Amino acid sequence: MAPDYSTIAKHCNLWRNYNDIDDSWESVETIIDYYGDNQDALIPNAGPGHWNDPDMLIIGNFGLSYEQSKSQMAIWSILAAPLLMSVDLRKIKPDYRDILINRNLIAINQDPLGIQGRRIYKNKGIEIWARPVTPVSGEVYSYAIAFLNRRTDGTPSEVSVVLQELGLINTLGYKVVDLFENKDLGVYTPKDVLHVSINPTGVVIVKAEVIASIQRTPNFIRPVFTENENFHVPLHNSPNFNVPFVQNNFQQPNFRRD
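RESULT FIELD:
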């Protein structure tokens, strides 16, 4: 029996959707897959006061590497998931503590629009997840974008993508910041190419903040994400990664490994 999430959302502030998390990367991956594969059913029922819960963070325990811990924090932030720690704070190592208290990631997770992000690309172990966030100019959103590397072949993967292929079409551009590195990457226009290098089982997450003369938060204006909308990525097995992405004329991100 499929859950009636619309009814659940009327009575509950948050709810679990899937299996209990184990202290392992394999378990985290199954949850990521579930949320990506079922996002069209899950996303419409998430928002302020009623949240999907993919289960607790296991960062700082024993099952995740440093890179995998960053990946869980990034994807949970894209999903607008409750950030419930399970680690013994008396014993956590500083590197893992810094992931949990990263102000940039927490700000994405707690963004006041409360829009759950979605997986917009998946091929050959590379995934791209995106979430609309503040500030907003008119009906043009800023975005948090996570580049997730599910590969385990021992070398970073290089991904290049044109901003307009991600649906970022603001003519004045976007201020792009690497959220884990807290590094300003500069201003990108829609036709500029963003390059990222992603460690195995790791993540790069950026915020692309819309640039406008006047920035404001809209009153409950939300993008509608469904299988038929532009924010859906068809899955193809093209070796050149040339597939429609966000817009009909999209050329897939360039992906290579040195």
